[in-house]
Every structure is written in C-alpha cells, then in structure tokens.
Design a protein that fits this description.
0% strand; 13 helices; 287 residues; mainly alpha
Length: 287
C-alpha cells in the first residue's frame, strides 16, 4: 500500500514539473533520495520515464483540435478534382506542416540521445549534476528575461523549419538531468525569436513523440514481464501525472500570457543551492 502512496506523490511531482521549466527528471531523482520506491533499480529507472506517458496524454487531450491532422470538409475542396481535392477535403495542411516541423525538431535528440541513453543514466543521473543544471539554467532564464524581448514569431504557423531545427538542438541539452526538457526548448525558442506562448506550445507538441519514444525504449529494456503490483504502481503514477498535468499545462499557458519566466529561474537557483547544501553539507553530517 505504501508503494501506491509513493506512486501518487511521484505522479504529482511529474505532473507539475514536466511542463514547468524546472526539470521533472531532476525532481524525480531528488525525490528518490527521500521517497524511493521499494522495488528493483531497473523498475525505478523505467518508472521515472514511463510515468511521463500520463503527462503526454494531458497534452493530447488539451490540444487535440490543434493536433489532429484530418478533417472532412467538402467546402475545402469546392471546385477541385482528383488527388488535390481529396487532400484538401480530408487533410488539414497547417496541422500536417506543424507535425513535419516537430519531426525536424526531434532529429537531433534521436541522433545524439539514443546512443548516449545508457551512458547518461549511469554517469549523470545523480544529485550533484541535477543541482548544477538547476542553478545554471536558472541563471540563463534570469539573463534572457533581462534583455528587451521583441519576438518575431507569435504563432506556431509562422515558425519555420530552420527555427524548429534550432529548438531541437536546444532540446539535446536536456539529456543532462536537471536541465529540463521544457526549460531547454523554451529558452532556445525564445532565443530564436518566438513568443513565450509559441515557445511553450511548441514545447508541448515536441514532447509527444520524444516522450513516447523514450518510454518505449525504457519498456523494451525492462521487458514486458511486469508483476501485477508493478503494473498497479506504474498505472497509478501515470493516472495521477495525467490529472495533475492537465492543471499544470493550463496554469503555464495562462501564466505566460502575462508574466515572464524569472520566477522559475529563481526557483531553480534556490532549489539547486538547497540540494548542494544537503548532499555536501547536511547528509555527510547525518552519516
């Protein structure tokens, strides 16, 4: 029963931190120090990634009208014949173009991330690295918000393929835990000239194939020999992450319309300092 309670708490952490630029993986690694699941290391490693599927489902539900690329609109093909008529009637071109931009943006993470996945997990998934990245990118957020910010891209439709690829390159930085995938892509998108709203929205869309792919890899490595209890723990974590993500995403989209990201920068710095103080100060004293 206690493991189910832990899964609920971890689901809440995932649902909040996945979409805010504060690093969900970093928070889950830190949570493991105080709230570790009493299960195998292989399961915990898989759980911390696959729980993101719940968060991803929230994006799909909330943004479904912007994500579904098909339609049945006879008016769109009026006066046309042949293949073009079929395409215009049944396909939403703007959505297809958006998905092509997403595919371009995920290429860098696929090329660089897949070969380095095991090495990253073994060498970088630890509290000191998380703390350092929390502080570093917290400073970056404060610096970028200090400049006069005049975005040239205020709608997803205006985001070109070159910018999409650039955002994808920034996403590679999030392979280091504590960086935050949403944090790296939002920072990158803003540096490349998008508005905060476009940066956040494209980050959400970009997360869908990235997280599905990462989850599939972890499940394949773990194998499909789940016990009933393991499935229950994983299922609870995903469901809670989904519910909390629905609230978290709505909050962030409303927040960025009127505010900047300085508060998240300060949060990251304070949390990073506290983590360093604990692991290099308090924990050794406690033995």
């Amino acid at each position: 029963m206690w493991e189910i309670v832990k899964a609920v708490i971890l689901g809440v952490i995932e649902g909040i931190t996945e979409w805010l630029p504060v690093s969900s993986t970093g928070h889950l690694i830190l949570a493991d120090e105080f709230l570790s699941l009493n299960m195998s290391e292989e399961f915990i490693e898989m759980f911390n990634v696959v729980i993101q599927l719940g968060a991803i489902l929230a994006v799909v539900v909330l943004f479904w009208p912007k994500l579904w690329p098909f339609q049945n609109d006879p008016e769109a093909a009026r006066g046309e014949t042949g293949a073009k008529a079929l395409v215009d009637r049944f396909c939403r071109k703007d959505v297809w173009v958006m998905w092509f931009k997403v595919l371009v943006a995920i290429l860098p993470a696929m090329v660089i991330g897949l070969p380095l996945d095991d090495w990253m997990t073994e060498h970088l998934h630890n509290p000191p690295v998380v703390a350092a990245m929390l502080i570093l990118y917290g400073v970056f957020f404060l610096l970028i918000e200090q400049r006069r910010y005049r975005p040239r891209i205020r709608r997803i439709a205006k985001l070109d393929y070159k910018t999409a690829l650039g955002i994808g390159l920034f996403q590679v930085l999030s392979l280091v835990p504590g960086t935050s995938r949403s944090g790296a892509t939002i920072l990158g998108a803003m540096l490349l000239g998008t508005s905060r709203t476009v940066a956040a929205e494209f980050t959400f869309f970009l997360a869908i194939p990235v997280m599905f792919g990462a989850s599939l890899i972890k499940v394949l490595k773990f194998g499909f020999a789940f016990t009933g209890f393991e499935l229950a723990v994983l299922g609870v974590g995903c469901v809670v992450a989904f519910v909390v993500s629905m609230l978290s995403i709505r909050f962030l989209m409303n927040y960025v319309k009127k505010h900047d990201f300085k508060v998240f920068g300060w949060y990251r710095i304070v949390l990073g300092v506290l983590v360093l103080a604990y692991f290099f100060g308090l924990k050794p004293l406690l033995g």
